[in-house]
Design brief:
mainly alpha, Na+/H+ antiporter like fold, Alpha-Beta Plaits, 2 domains, five-stranded antiparallel beta sheet, 64% helix
Amino acid sequence: MEELSVGVLLLTAGALVLVCVLASKITERVGVPTLLLFLGLGMLAGADGPGGIYFDDAALSRLVGTIALVFILYAGGVDTNWHSVRPVLAPGAVLASLGVLFTAISLGVFLAWATDLALSNGLLLGAIVASTDAAAVFAVLRARNVHIEEKTRSLLELESGANDPTAVFLTIAFIEALTTGELHAGSMVLAFFLQMGAGAAIGFLLSKAAIWLINRIQLEYEGLYPVLSVALLIVTFGAAELAHGSGFLAVYVAGIVMSNSIYIHKRSLIRFHDGLAWVGQIGMFLTLGLLVFPSRVFSVLSTGLLAAVFLIFVARPVSVAISLAFFRFSWRERAFISWVGLRGAVPIVLATFPLVAGVDGAEHIFNIVFFVVIVSVLLQGTTVAPAAQWLHVEGPGPRLSPLESNEVPASRFVEYRVRPDSEFVGRQIAQCGLPDTAKLIAIKRYGSYLVPTGGMYLRRDDLLTFIADEAAVRHLDGTSAFERADSAPSSDIEEQGGSPS
């Protein structure tokens, strides 16, 4: 009987994921965000839907959501180009901190005034829905029909990846205030900066350590490198949390550092984490959809609609205007940034926190949050492309991921000789951490040319022919493992009489 139950469970889970993957083609064509599809399928499979699966484990949903967010934020960081993000780092940081705080307070105060929600519960609800959702923003902005100029796109992606930690911090702080009856603004501000600083520092340092380890460990089986990468990612999150830092910010920073560094198997690891992020998104949305009882959501229709309208048309635009007041953005750009304040799975995950903590009115808050997310996705998520056209903030096209981009920078042929004392002697090519934009096309060894493969071992005095862009050439020039062929001895290798090491 137990084996049958496990079989049914796995069959159901696999079928739901398969339907999500196949149905994503439909959403791509009609312009509906995929997260809405995943949530909808979860609701259909739930107790109020034809699936009839009864699920009300808020603690398990919180765990699934937390793990999924770790992979989603890391993948978002890996797909972030530091050169594009750096010019908008300051406005992004302000939006991700002060912008979230203002949104939370303004919405909480408004709901306490306009509805029967207590101010404490209103502020908690405001904190839960204050941040934009990374998964939703990444998915919408990278859709094929959305073309946004680079500065605005980079700011929105940076904000969505960096503001989740602020919302998590505020949510936990307000829950503690509700359960203990104490709230100290001064200590909250200090704790916020300490938590964000610790998270960013740990993410940066551990990602640097991860790069060093990946490039030097020389694992015998290539399939272990994704396992190593996942282990290092989980360690980064756990270490940041243990140090009372923001684990979510740590993994996002780690992703950005890894994206802009050179390490072996980089392309395959990027592809692996992109797939893992999709698994996380599907699993998280389905789980949260199962957790929702649509019959209960409709009971908060008036309050939820009021909250959604105020959030979309008042709180978000005013917070963007205040946050970007001292930065050079046109009114059109600010209006578009305000409109792409998508709420998604993150607020629903955060809404499970009060449920787990046993806060009075937690289920009411959860249902309101879910309604707000649905309205945001339906209204904002489906109109991003038309809004960009109407506000004239379109760019040349969506920025592609490193795996999708066909853009080839200006390159040239260059030759290097492997030094006899090189650290790469006796090491596989795949383990040498060569730049992505330096393609090794031939190896001359003892008068014969060899076609290089990732598993081939380098030998001293090998003559390597690359086609590389200028950045890769500068990197290769700067390493002590190689010397330019035109500065090496002019005699051919076979004339030197040396034997391979």
